[in-house]
Amino acid sequence: MYVSRAVESIRADPIEGESVALALTTTDDADPETVAAAVEDRGGTVERHLQFDDLAVSVPHDRVDAICDIDGLAAVETTDAIAITTTEATDEDVEFDG
């Protein structure tokens, strides 16, 4: 399973009282509802179901390690690493030079 460097950093040194938004990529044979239930059992909150049976979740830093141990995951990244945007969000985040 792939775990991004940002997530590995949080696993190694969680900040008490902080949480993080994660994108969970499920394996082809995983049941997304089972993965979602496992997230909630480990103290996370499922924020959205994404394309391809993936999930956007929020998790306290001290629970990230437990999330990474869920069966059926192919990758765990922060949501900053993927494009979860709307037109409005894109307009706010893009700066043009010149």
Automatic annotation (TrEMBL):
It comes from the Archaea. Residues 1-83 form the Putative peptidase inhibitor domain. InterPro entries: Peptidase_inhib_put_dom (IPR058957). This is Putative peptidase inhibitor domain-containing protein. It comes from Haloarcula pellucida. The lineage of its organism: Archaea, Methanobacteriati, Methanobacteriota, Stenosarchaea group, Halobacteria.
